[in-house]
Structures are given as C-alpha cells and as structure tokens.
Amino acid sequence: MDDSFFHSQVRTVWWEEDEADGRAQIGLLDQSLLPQQVVIMHLQHEQQVADAIASLKVRGAPVIGVTAAFGVALAAARLLAERQAVQRELTLAELSEHVHEVSQLLCRTRPTAVNLFWATERMQRCLQQVARTSMPVQQLVALLQEEAQAIAAEDVQACWQMGMYGAELIADGDTLLTHCNAGALATTGIGTALAPIYVAARSGKNLHVLVDETRPVLQGARLTAWELQQEGIPLTLITDNMAGHFMRQGNIRSIFVGADRIAANGDVANKIGTYSLAVLAHAHQIPLYVVAPCSTIDLSLPSGDQIPIEQRKPEEVTTLYGTSIAPAGVAVANPAFDVTPHPYISAIITEKGIVRPPYRENLRELDTEH
Ligand SMILES: CSC[C@H]1O[C@H](OP(=O)(O)O)[C@H](O)[C@@H]1O
C-alpha cells in the first residue's frame, strides 16, 4: 500500500515553526469545530496544549498521546529559547524539572486515556537516558523533539498494522457498526477502529458502516461521518439508541470500536455507550472487536475496575451547540467512558497482531511498554 491509499488530507497534529520568527510550535486541527469549520491552531505554550486536550480540540487516545509528547518537547524548546534570549544558562536539572512539571500538567487534562501517561513517561525516560552522557542541553532539547516525532511516526505505522490485521475480520458485503471516532482524527495515521475498515474497503470489499452519533459531544455524527464521507466509505448515521434495533434486524455483521485503556485482564474503557453496545452485541451473537495500539494497554491495572473514569462538565449533556435542551438546574451525570468487561470482547486488534481470550495471558505476551 502506498501513500495514495488514503485519500483524506486529515492531519491532526504536527510539529512546525512559526513563519515569522522560527519559534517552535504545534500545528493542530481544532476538532471541536468540525465538520462545520476546518480551523488550524498554532500552539506555542504548553498551557495551550493542555487546554486543547482538555477541551477536546484534539481527542482520541493515540493522538492525545502524540500531542502530549509534542507538548513536552515544545515546553523544553520554549524554556531554552527564553533563557537564550536573556543569555542565561539552562541547566540539566532545570530542564528535567520543567519536563516533569509539564508532563504532570498534561496528564491532569484527561485521566482515562493511558496513552497520555505512556507518552509523557516515554519523554521523561528519553531525557533521563541521555542525561548521563553529559550532552549539551541544546542537544537534549533537540532529542526531545526527535522522540516526539518518533512517537508520532510509530503511531502512523501502528495504525497501518492494525488496519491490515483487522481487515482479515471483514468480509465483502459486511455492514459494520462503530461508536465515537476511532479514525484518522483520533490518531496521526489512518485510525484504530476505522483502520481495518479503510484497508478492507481499499482492497475491494464492499462495506457499509453504521455510525452511532455518540452523545454527548457527537464524535460519531461530527467526526466519523465526516471522515468516512471524505474517504468515500458508504455510511449511515444513527442515534445511539437505534443500535439494538439494527442488531435485532440482523443488519450488523460486526462492531469495531477503539479503546482508551485496556486492563491486564482485557477489560476495556472506551467512549460511554460501548458497554451497552457490547451487551447488545453479545445477546445477538455479533462479534465486538476492540482496535488499539499497545500504548493503550495498561498491564499495571488488574481489571477495568481500577481504570479512572473521566467525569466531564454537565453542559455537554444539557446543551447542544450552546442551546439548552434541559431544564435549568437539573442534576446531570456525564461519565465520558465506560468499562466493557472482557467476556464481551471477541478480540483485541493491536499492531502486533490479533489477541483473543484468555486475555490476561495473551496480552502479557505482547511485550507492551507498560
Ligand atoms: C482511537 S481512541 C478513540 C477513542 O477516543 C474517544 O474518546 P474521546 O473522543 O473522548 O477522546 C473514544 O473513547 C474513542 O474510542
């Protein structure tokens, strides 16, 4: 497969330099405005990066990991530039402390997606490893940038591999269901859950995708529908509460979803509503596949019960595009994710292959970095 395989020009996040003064910055597609507007942001401070992640301008587990890595590299470059401007030395100890503090800042934005923690830990490890070599601090800052670029490049590669493995599970003529957005917009590559769909479609299989709208913030309706449309993949948008109806009618061959964190026993935290889908799928004997890179696997947690679930603001539920849809003062719950117990998961597709039960043993053999 060559680069022309993927038609869309979707780019989620990248490293760049300001045209005017050559300052390091991060280019980022503002996903909160899609599909109505395609707006590119240019971030020059780590606080802007943290705000972009917290406000879902960039969202999806793999790409928030990449964004956090770029954020750490940006913070290091910014501190060095500040010191150079006043001709003050930046010591290794100061750089290390700054990188640690910025990692903590970025990790406070979204607690469930483990990729954020994985990426910032990897950035800190990179600094610790080379620090012993007494390398000049300018070179350490450049190395952090290279490490972030490597994380992004590995994500692109992982998406391809997940796509190739997952496509084997899709047959010509299948109708598939997906939830939220686990496509190109959630990664720096062709996506996680949507990657097998793209690979299968490009290999000539005729497919149809049912897309859950995914309340409360509509990643399915706004992002997945937009992304699939750009790629020319036939789709039908449905509201979340229609999924059971279509399963019962026998219209759905399999379900592909992403993941924000996978525990050692194979329990999966993913966008709220995934658990309900999984139970329905089980009742209708429809396979549910989770597609995620190894950076989403957290072997330090024995089960999904230990996965922290992000609670988001009530306004995401009580309003739609700024318009109130509920009575003022109503009590609201807004967990962003739920946990699907592993017995409901038919297979977990990673860049290293397809993992089937028993998950505890088979995930351990994958050689993840956690
Ligand atoms: C490829 S992971 C995408 C993953 O991210 C989503 O959450 P959010 O939009 O809140 O970042 C959701 O859980 C998707 O499955």
From TrEMBL:
Binding site for substrate: R59, G60, A61, R110, Q219, N270, K271
Active-site residues (renumbered): D260
Gene Ontology MF annotations: S-methyl-5-thioribose-1-phosphate isomerase activity
InterPro entries xrefs: IF-2B-related, IF-M1Pi, IF_2B-like_C, Initiation_fac_2B_a/b/d, M1Pi_N, NagB/RpiA_transferase-like
Catalytic activity: 5-(methylsulfanyl)-alpha-D-ribose 1-phosphate = 5-(methylsulfanyl)-D-ribulose 1-phosphate
The keyword Isomerase appears for this protein: yes
Domain of life: Bacteria
Site (Transition state stabilizer) location in chain: C180
A GO biological-process term: L-methionine salvage from methylthioadenosine
Listed pathway(s): Amino-acid biosynthesis; L-methionine biosynthesis via salvage pathway; L-methionine from S-methyl-5-thio-alpha-D-ribose 1-phosphate: step 1/6
Top-rank EC class of the record's enzyme: isomerase
Classification via SUPFAM superfamilies: NagB/RpiA/CoA transferase-like (SSF100950)
Pfam families assigned: IF-2B
Catalytic activity, EC: 5.3.1.23
UniProt keyword list: Amino-acid biosynthesis, Isomerase, Methionine biosynthesis
Functional description taken from the UniProt entry: Catalyzes the interconversion of methylthioribose-1-phosphate (MTR-1-P) into methylthioribulose-1-phosphate (MTRu-1-P).
NCBIfam families, per the entry: eIF-2B_rel, PRK05720.1, salvage_mtnA
Family, per entry: Belongs to the EIF-2B alpha/beta/delta subunits family. MtnA subfamily.
Name of the protein this chain belongs to: Methylthioribose-1-phosphate isomerase
Lineage start: Bacteria, Bacillati, Chloroflexota, Ktedonobacteria, Ktedonobacterales
Gene: mtnA
